[in-house]
Request: fold
Amino acid sequence: MKASAFVTCVTFLVATTPAAIDKRAIVTSSYHRYVRPIEEDSDYARVLELSLLFYEAQRSGKLAPDNRIAWRGDSGLDDRGDDGEDLTGGYYDAGDFVKFGFTMASTTTLLAWGAVSWPEAYARLGQLDVIREALKWATDYFIKCHVSENVLYGQVGDFTVDHAFWGRPEELNTSRPVFKIDPEHPGSDLAGETSAALASTSLLFRTVDPDYADKLLRHARELYNFAKVHRGLYHEAIRGAAQYYESTDYGDELAWAAAWLFKASNETKYLDEAEHHYQHFHLRERPNEFFYNKKVAGVQVLLAQLTGQQEYRNAAKAFCNFSVRQQKRTPKGLLYIDKFGTLCHAANVAFICLQAADYPDIGDPQEYREFAKQQIHYILGGAGRSYVVGWGHNPPTQPHHAASSCPDKPTACGWSEFDRNAPNPQVLYGALVSGPDEADRFHDRREDYVYTEVTLDYNAGFTGALAGLLQLQAKAQAHPR
Ligand SMILES: *[C@@H]1O[C@H](CO)[C@@H](O)[C@H](O)[C@H]1NC(C)=O
Ligand SMILES: *[C@@H]1O[C@H](CO)[C@@H](O)[C@H](O)[C@H]1NC(C)=O
Ligand SMILES: *[C@@H]1O[C@H](CO)[C@@H](O)[C@H](O)[C@H]1NC(C)=O
Reply:
């Protein structure tokens, strides 16, 4: 079934000259014909499992005995703080080997939100323990990084130093400088997002491991206070990060953290503070995107879910209405916000609007869900090719990812692997690549990271959206119309 849908699509594309496609594409409503639905259950289910496998391939530290990635081993075992603190564990940010707190934390919060909202999807796949382990791999690391009340390590490894190395993380031989925030060098965005990650994850451990949930909540409260009392942008404290992962503002992270703390602790003072930050930082304005450093749309939807108040419902509606109806698209119908992480941007909006669609009176739930399906279908192959490594029709084979570009050991691995124009020998299952450009063009070349980069945060909203769609399918099957 799946294959025949692809064959039809491919035949159509082959039979049409590129010029003809471009011309037709000018009629914006014609994108529906290109984005062919792939409806089977097994697609969302299988890809959701694979996307969790991608996170497993990104693990740093001493791996668990049940590690499923045969080509990965222990790494980064000497990662230490300034005073020798153990900073092993956590996840590598992308195809490189920096452990980068800000995106690791926003990834964690999004993965947790998806699992908190749609646990049946994970349960149905037998993946609830897998997502819990994935979250715990990050939160155990954040707890290590939170060495005292107002000190948080936010980065291990320096981007410039790290980028001189191409090879296996197990053979990484670069120096691993560490960077932290403290009261003299604050980072309300980083501390706030880490607090949100810990608080949201605590919800998934509340019943299965209440002690761990309490521990997460304790660290989340302290980090929120640190963020609130000592204000600043983390990239002014951790300067090397600015050129790669600039933060823009911290008001959204303060509101985000407080809202998650309310959801996790039931204490109304946190809701009051979230609402205060919302007003104070003017978070009602309609954002253009939902991204690791732009969380306003997430705050709007979460506050709408938590309070049901008109103000937040309207804000969420304005964002989803705009994204679904007016945001720029590629000729084949993909939401187009930025050329870096095209697919991540589209999947993040799909995720947010699936969240919005689950609550009463936030716009048109059917419209938002159709939109989400369409964006995810584009990613899975609806526009002619899959953008998920190791899955579907013609998937990317050269993700910009050092570890997976290495041959089996003991063959050496280095820059010649970076330069080799051939598929990565190790398949990085479940990784969503950055994606096509605004004309739906894609270069499956390792060095073209604008197209082939993979990162923790690129996969996060995507994983969540798959869970949301899977849960809808399960519901539709349980209550057929
Ligand atoms: C690190 O390893 C690479 C490749 O394995 C090698 O070329 C380089 O000389 C090593 N650098 C150091 C500082 O040992
Ligand atoms: C918050 O309230 C919910 C629902 O009543 C409850 O299940 C949960 O255990 C509470 N959480 C805490 C930390 O008290
Ligand atoms: C969003 O769309 C709905 C459904 O068409 C419409 O009723 C509503 O007024 C719109 N809301 C905003 C804030 O744009």
